[in-house]
């Protein structure tokens, strides 16, 4: 602890124990605890107490001070726990009978303060920190704390209840770990008394008819198996798993959610890896649990690396059952018939699906989300039933838009039809899943059906904007997966067919009155152009449509997000050589209008930040790609863009301006922009001739002035980026000694003067024409590394140091009256 | 209680309810889909239409070629369009006491009913319904009268001939009853029979029933009706909407506790969501106009057009359409736009509050002010001077058989740059377009129907819980084109009763009670006796007075006191007005105790037999029989009056008197 803090601490401790003082807020106390935590982690707690007797005084005073705020009480309990985590410090505090005063009957326990959940929470967290060594166990036993912890499991505050459960699990682990003679016995009856008591309590709870108690016990066990890697976990599992299995016999299964958590925790536990019985329990659970609970369990099992083959097959069947049920309910379900569905599970799933609208929607969404998660995993079941899954996703989507025909005589089909019609949640989930399925191929006739259903959704006026967005995303993924192999120059016929229908839809969507729809349409356009611009068939279809013109018209959209997307889209179209030709039959083959002035106008005049940021990104990309309009006169282009960016109020635009400047510099210095950032060798410095040329160009386009100004930007990321840019420039020019040093010349002096004024906040001062030599001299004279270091510190590093914290807290209680609090 | 169903069209209903002693007609919608069988009436001579070939029978017989013309494989009647009227033979319409109108679309057959059937009753409707209904009728009359057609085809209607015609003419129903449009004179006469009502106003019909209009949320002034007596309630739900558009929201709560709910006027496009359709409408509109094409929107002069104009107002600038002219052409365009602004009390809350600012409730006022929307009575006159292309034209009639729309179809139909967008759901757009084929112009179908869909109906029925639901048969099964959509039908318990055209339904409930009032002085004289806790009885002697379907108990006339001996007594005075009142008896006779009592009084040889209704006590010695039943006791003995009286007194001991 630094001396300044040591000086402030006694006053603060005194203030905290004074009930008349206003209490500092929770965040301050939380920060103070964080600070003590770093102190105790870094060094000896005992030393800390000896150096700061005020802390001991605080802990002594707190239980005695009447009317103390619950926050301070909770803080003290947690602080005591933190300090007592080290055994020597624990002994020290024990000597003073300080700990029983805080955690025992003499403390807040059972008193009026106990009614505050903060205090109960502080008590548990204090004990949780404290319980790190065997002496702590004795202390807790003497205190009789276990009963309190057990009762707090049912606390009205969820935080307290959950913390109590975790403490119990921790204590169990500690008591078994604390065994001096090595590993605990193979029987629970050989275990220490405290461990036996906890196990007894868990057993009792598991047999209880009250569901909340069962839940508590299961949660404790889940935590235990999640953290414990020792052999005693096997003993515990052998003892308690029959009770968990008993729960599965009940109808309905109580606390099913927590039971699933426990089973998954046990399945994942390395300590139980040799125990085969757990798989039996899990298999039993898969058969017994309701589909809504069995789903998460199945997914959990399927993500395991070491799940037995038979069990993962069973889990996969359980996971697929709702979709199998949907497939069965529809006639002419696309694709090969059916998913593997266990005959015994089927009616239960149908019942669950049809019990209510919300249950049906919930179960289907859950299933689709689970399968979407599973799809990309390497350990997903093999063979992966791609075709039936595609069929199921298409069928679900058809039920949702009313085009699925229920199987005749199928009650399920009729009900599904009524439940799912127009259900946005299921539509979104199914479209997400369908998109994920594009990673694998499917039989051509199914792919045709996928395209058909996607087109239906894109065309339907009833698709909500969020559904439409998902439909666009899924379509894009399928289009990308349908890319022709390299060497083949055009698209396959079904894709071309889709394209022919897709572009008119896109056209209409770009004219939608709903801005979200226009926006997702433009995003789709940008992405599809990015991937497909090289395909002749696509280029032809796109240029024949009105999509490029519409995208350009949307640059004037009233919604800023749409304008931003339009900027990105037209930028992409233009860089891929797909410009908008003038609309209307009256200008056939008219002169092509340049896009650059339009985008420059967006950058200079748009009232919102998003379109301007998008314009900067497009410009940077254009510069990188050597876009024709840029290449015409690159310097003029860079000068105009930087001029507009420097005046921008949006820091991201200015930062993007620096990015563009960097690309420009790299290009003029002759460095490929795409050099590998992980290259072992340091980037080679440029040849001196080039450096002079590059510097001159940078001065001409006022890049240097832009960068210097940005160095003193109020927004830290801009200043950092500028610092990096100038460092890059300086390093590149390092070997350039042939030029005479310009240091001391009047030019340099004026630059330095301007920089000083800018640093002082007078940004109005312009910088005259610059010479490369002067720039270099200024760069070399500046402590750019130092500046970078200062900028790397977060902006609140001053406010976050402990001294400032202590001062603030004291200022709140009025002890340091003259300290100016930070005004935010 | 009976329901006579005069129309088979679920959204243009015409039903007659006989309830208590009243005969109430619920709506009188006019089915105009019959006009689709006719050739369009062009405003300007159309060489294409006048040169269509006549139709001849397969055997080459050409006797119909003057009446029927062929166009792109369809056969049309070349005559003044005719409408299919509600059934007039099922019930004598002169006996109808009142007609309740629920919205302006459901009153278009009114002149046919009020002017030609001997109807002498009253019509009830809200003010906006009447005013806008008048506009719709005026437009219809105008459209048909301004293009007079000499020919009136009738040969094809002959039943034997009709059988030989191709579909759909062959299958047209009741063609002999089809009628030409009414005249303005008939409209005025019919409308003069309307009495204006306000929402929640209670209207007594002959004292027998009370009718009340409730807001239905579908159109300006649209209503549902409650028809109730003291103990029965019938709700009539016609075109209703739960969407937030311009009209006052629907009043659902008042529909609760109905014995019967007659449900008509649901959405005609149950699978389309109006919001999505509006989006589709504007997307297509913008796309066409941006390409230099014109947009034609065939529509009614009132209703959805107000909402479309409002959306247009919000969309016009953002879509870069501010330079595009919007034209609204109808003989009643001006009145319709202005009427909509003055019915503030019938509008939704949002629009009502605007009036207090004061601002016009609909933003189309601003569109007109800024010259973005222009309206004209017809394409003649000013319009031809102002007309600029590309443009958007809203005009009628949605059937495409008459009105200015016919001209635009002929004008723009040949170019694929132009688009016709159908927003009204009443006509099949394919049939409407049939006489214009081949057509190069793009056709978009965006039906906007804000009426209740089946999900909303099932929620509504759950909420109001009527005992019985009566609806057109179309609502009891999925639409034929989507037979698997079991969600597209009414699902309620008990299942709804369905009706079809020309059917008479006996509604499934019996009237069991009638309310009778007791005059205060009579009530004062009652002396209730408590029979058991909570139940008191009193005898009443009164005169039942019934007038105007109201029943009242009045005190009986007092006996006239003898006024002295001098005058001669009149004969009637001799008869006492009131006999000495015998007490009323109540209670039951416990058989065992009764037998004991009999034994006590010297009767022996008593035998008791149980019967289905009670007991028979047999006094064998006296050859006497006492028959005790729940509501009667008989003593049967042969000519022994003494014995009978003795036995009677013993029986009476067990009963209470008052």
TrEMBL record, chain A:
It is found in: Cytoplasm. One of its GO terms (cellular component) is cytoplasm. InterPro entries: ARM-like (IPR011989), ARM-type_fold (IPR016024), BRAT1 (IPR038904). Keywords: Cytoplasm. Transmembrane segments: none annotated. GO terms for biological process: cell population proliferation; DNA damage response. Its main location: cytoplasm. Belongs to the BRAT1 family. This is BRCA1 associated ATM activator 1. It comes from Myotis myotis (Greater mouse-eared bat). The lineage of its organism: Eukaryota, Metazoa, Chordata, Craniata, Vertebrata.
TrEMBL record, chain B:
One of its GO terms (biological process) is RNA polymerase II transcription initiation surveillance. It holds the Pfam family Lactamase_B_6. Residues 548-572 are annotated as: Disordered. Its main location: cytoplasm. Keywords: Cytoplasm, Nucleus. One of its GO terms (cellular component) is integrator complex. It is found in: Cytoplasm; Nucleus. It comes from the Eukaryota. InterPro entries: Beta_Casp (IPR022712), Integrator_9su (IPR027074), IntS9-like_C (IPR048660), Metallo-B-lactamas (IPR001279), RibonucZ/Hydroxyglut_hydro (IPR036866). Residues 305-433 form the Beta-Casp domain. Component of the integrator complex, a multiprotein complex that terminates RNA polymerase II (Pol II) transcription in the promoter-proximal region of genes. Belongs to the metallo-beta-lactamase superfamily. RNA-metabolizing metallo-beta-lactamase-like family. INTS9 subfamily. Component of the Integrator complex, composed of core subunits INTS1, INTS2, INTS3, INTS4, INTS5, INTS6, INTS7, INTS8, INTS9/RC74, INTS10, INTS11/CPSF3L, INTS12, INTS13, INTS14 and INTS15. The core complex associates with protein phosphatase 2A subunits PPP2CA and PPP2R1A, to form the Integrator-PP2A (INTAC) complex. INTS9 is part of the RNA endonuclease subcomplex, composed of INTS4, INTS9, INTS11 and inositol hexakisphosphate (InsP6). Interacts with WDR73; interaction is required for the assembly of the RNA endonuclease subcomplex in the cytoplasm. This is Integrator complex subunit 9.
């Amino acid at each position: 602890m630094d001396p300044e803090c040591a000086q402030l601490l006694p006053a603060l401790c005194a203030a905290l124990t004074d009930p008349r003082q206003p209490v500092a807020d929770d965040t301050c106390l939380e920060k103070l605890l964080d600070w003590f935590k770093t102190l105790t982690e870094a060094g000896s707690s005992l030393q800390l107490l000896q150096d700061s007797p005020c802390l001991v005084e605080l802990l002594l005073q707190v239980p005695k001070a009447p009317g103390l705020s619950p926050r301070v009480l909770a803080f003290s309990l947690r602080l005591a726990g933190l300090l007592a985590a080290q055994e020597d410090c624990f002994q020290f505090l024990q000597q003073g009978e300080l700990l029983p005063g805080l955690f025992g009957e003499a403390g807040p326990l059972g008193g009026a303060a106990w009614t505050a959940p903060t205090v109960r929470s502080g008590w548990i967290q204090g004990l949780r920190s404290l319980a790190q060594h065997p002496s702590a166990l004795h202390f807790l036993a003497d205190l009789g704390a276990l009963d309190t912890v057990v009762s707090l499991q049912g606390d009205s505050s969820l935080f307290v209840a959950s913390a109590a459960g975790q403490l119990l699990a921790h204590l169990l682990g500690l008591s078994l770990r604390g065994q001096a003679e090595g590993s605990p016995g193979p029987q629970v009856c050989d275990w220490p008394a405290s461990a036996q008591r906890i196990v007894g309590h868990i057993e009792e709870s598991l047999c209880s008819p009250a569901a909340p108690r069962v839940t508590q016990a299961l949660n404790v066990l889940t935590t235990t198996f999640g953290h414990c890697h020792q052999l005693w976990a096997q003993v515990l599992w052998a003892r308690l798993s029959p009770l968990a299995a008993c729960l599965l016999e009940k109808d309905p299964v109580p606390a099913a959610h927590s039971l699933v958590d426990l089973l998954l925790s046990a399945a994942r536990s390395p300590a139980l890896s040799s125990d085969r019985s757990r798989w039996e329990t899990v298999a039993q659970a898969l058969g017994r649990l309701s589909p809504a609970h069995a789903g998460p369990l199945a997914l959990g099992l399927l993500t395991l690396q070491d799940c037995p083959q038979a069990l993962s097959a069973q889990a996969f069947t359980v996971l697929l059952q709702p979709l199998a049920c949907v497939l069965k309910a529809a006639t002419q379900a696309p694709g090969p018939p059916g998913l593997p569905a266990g005959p015994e599970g089927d009616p239960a799933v149908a019942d669950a699906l049809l019990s209510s609208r919300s249950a049906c929607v919930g179960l289907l969404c859950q299933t689709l989300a689970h399968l979407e998660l599973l799809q990309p995993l390497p350990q997903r079941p093999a063979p992966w039933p791609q075709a039936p899954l595609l069929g199921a996703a298409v069928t679900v989507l058809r039920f949702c838009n009313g085009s699925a025909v229920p199987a005749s005589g199928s009650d399920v089909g009729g009900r599904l039809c009524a439940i799912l019609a127009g259900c946005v949640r299921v539509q979104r989930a199914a479209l997400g899943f369908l998109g994920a399925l594009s990673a694998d191929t499917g039989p051509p006739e199914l792919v045709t059906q996928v395209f058909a259903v996607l087109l239906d959704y894109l065309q339907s006026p009833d698709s909500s904007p969020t559904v439409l967005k998902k439909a666009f995303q899924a379509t894009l993924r399928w289009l990308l997966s349908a890319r022709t192999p390299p060497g083949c120059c055009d698209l396959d016929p079904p894709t071309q067919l889709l394209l022919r229908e897709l572009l008119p839809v896109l056209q209409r969507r770009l004219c939608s009155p709903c801005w979200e729809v226009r926006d997702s349409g433009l995003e789709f356009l940008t992405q599809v152009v990015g991937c497909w611009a090289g395909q002749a068939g696509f280029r032809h279809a796109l240029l024949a449509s009105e999509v490029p013109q519409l995208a350009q018209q949307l640059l004037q959209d009233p919604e800023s997000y749409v304008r931003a997307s339009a900027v990105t889209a037209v930028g992409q179209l233009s860089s891929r050589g797909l410009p908008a030709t003038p609309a209307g039959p009256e200008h056939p083959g008219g002169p092509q209008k340049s896009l650059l002035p339009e985008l420059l106008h967006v950058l200079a005049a748009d009232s919102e930040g998003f379109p301007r940021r998008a314009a900067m990104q497009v410009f940077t990309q254009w510069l990188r790609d050597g876009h024709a309009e840029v290449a015409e006169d690159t310097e003029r282009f860079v000068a105009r863009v930087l001029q507009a960016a420097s005046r921008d109020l949006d820091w991201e635009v200015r930062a993007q301006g620096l990015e563009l400047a960097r690309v420009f510099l790299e290009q003029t210095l002759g460095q490929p922009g795409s050099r590998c950032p992980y290259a072992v060798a340091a980037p080679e410095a440029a040849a001196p001739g080039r450096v002079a040329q590059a510097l001159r160009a940078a001065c001409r386009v006022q890049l240097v002035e832009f960068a210097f100004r940005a160095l003193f930007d109020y927004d830290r990321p801009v200043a950092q980026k500028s610092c990096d840019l100038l460092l890059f420039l300086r390093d590149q020019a390092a070997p350039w000694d042939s030029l005479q040093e310009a240091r001391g010349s009047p030019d340099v002096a004026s630059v330095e003067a301007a920089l000083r004024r800018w640093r002082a906040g007078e940004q109005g001062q312009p910088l005259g024409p610059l010479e490369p030599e002067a720039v270099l001299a200024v760069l070399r004279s500046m402590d750019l590394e130092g500046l970078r270091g200062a900028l790397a510190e977060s902006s609140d590093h001053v406010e976050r140091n402990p001294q400032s914290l202590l001062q603030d807290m004291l200022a709140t209680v009025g002890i340091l009256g003259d300290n100016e609090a930070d005004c935010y | 209680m009976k329901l006579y169903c005069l129309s088979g069209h679920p959204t243009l209903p015409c039903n007659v309810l006989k309830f208590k002693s009243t005969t109430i007609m619920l709506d009188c919608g006019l089915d105009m889909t019959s006009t689709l069988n006719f050739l369009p009436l062009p405003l300007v001579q159309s060489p294409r239409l006048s040169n269509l070939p006549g139709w001849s029978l397969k055997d080459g017989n050409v006797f119909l070629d003057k009446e029927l013309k062929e166009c792109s494989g369809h056969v049309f009647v070349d005559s003044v369009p005719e409408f299919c009227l509600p059934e007039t033979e099922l019930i004598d319409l002169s006996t109808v006491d009142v007609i309740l109108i629920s919205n302006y679309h459901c009153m278009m057959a009114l002149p046919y009913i009020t002017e030609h059937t001997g109807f002498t009753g009253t019509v009830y409707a809200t003010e906006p319904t009447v005013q806008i209904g008048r506009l719709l009728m005026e437009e219809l009359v105008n459209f048909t009268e301004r293009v007079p057609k000499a020919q009136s085809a009738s040969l094809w209607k002959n039943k034997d001939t009709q059988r030989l015609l191709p579909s759909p003419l062959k299958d047209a129903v009741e063609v002999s009853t089809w009628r030409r449009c009414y005249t303005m004179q008939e409209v005025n006469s019919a409308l003069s029979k309307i009495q204006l009502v306000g929402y929640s106003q209670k209207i007594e019909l002959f004292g027998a029933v009370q009718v009340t209009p409730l807001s239905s949320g579908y159109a300006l002034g649209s209503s549902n009706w409650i028809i109730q007596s003291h103990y029965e309630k019938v709700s009539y739900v016609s075109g209703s909407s739960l969407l937030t558009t311009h009209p006052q929201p629907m009043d659902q709560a008042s529909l609760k506790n109905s014995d019967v709910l007659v449900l008509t006027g649901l959405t005609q496009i149950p699978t389309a969501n109006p919001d999505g359709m509006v989006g589709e409408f504007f997307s297509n509109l913008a796309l066409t106009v941006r390409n230099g094409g014109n947009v034609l929107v065939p529509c009614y002069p009132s209703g959805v057009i107000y909402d479309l104009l409002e959306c247009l107002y919000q969309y016009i600038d953002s879509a870069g359409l501010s330079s595009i002219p919007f034209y609204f052409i109808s003989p009643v365009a001006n009145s319709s736009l202005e009427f909509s602004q003055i019915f503030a009390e019938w509008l939704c809350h949002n629009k009502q509050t605007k009036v207090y600012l004061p601002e016009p409730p609909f933003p189309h006022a601003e569109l007109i002010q800024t010259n973005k929307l222009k309206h004209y009575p017809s394409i003649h006159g000013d319009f031809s001077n102002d007309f600029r292309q590309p443009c958007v034209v809203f005009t009628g009639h949605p059937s495409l058989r008459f009105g200015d729309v016919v001209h635009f179809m002929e004008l723009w139909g040949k170019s694929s740059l132009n688009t016709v967008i159908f927003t009204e759901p009443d006509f099949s757009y394919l049939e409407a377009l049939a006489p214009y084929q081949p057509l190069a112009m793009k056709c978009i179908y965006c039906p906007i129907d804000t009426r209740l869909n089946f999900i909303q109906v099932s929620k509504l029925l759950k909420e109001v819980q009527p005992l019985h639901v009566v609806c057109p048969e179309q609502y009891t099964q999925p639409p034929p084109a989507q037979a698997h959509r079991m969600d597209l039908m009414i699902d309620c318990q008990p299942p709804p009763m369905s009706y079809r055209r020309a059917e008479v339904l006996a509604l499934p409930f019996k009237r069991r009670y009638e309310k009778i009032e007791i005059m205060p002085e009579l009530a004062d004289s009652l002396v209730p006796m408590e029979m058991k806790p909570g139940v008191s009885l009193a005898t009443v002697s009164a005169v039942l007075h019934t007038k105007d379907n109201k029943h009242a108990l009045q005190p009986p006339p007092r006996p006239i006191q003898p006024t002295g001996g001098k005058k001669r007594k009149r004969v009637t005075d001799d008869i006492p007005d009131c006999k000495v009142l015998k007490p009323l008896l109540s209670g039951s006779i416990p058989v065992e105790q009764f037998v004991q009592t009999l034994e006590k009084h010297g009767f022996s040889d008593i035998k008791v037999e149980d019967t289905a209704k009670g007991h028979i006590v047999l006094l064998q010695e006296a050859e006497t029989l006492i028959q005790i039943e729940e509501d009667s006791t008989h003593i049967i003995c042969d000519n022994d009056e003494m014995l009978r009286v003795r036995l009677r007194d013993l029986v009476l001991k067990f009963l209470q008197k008052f």
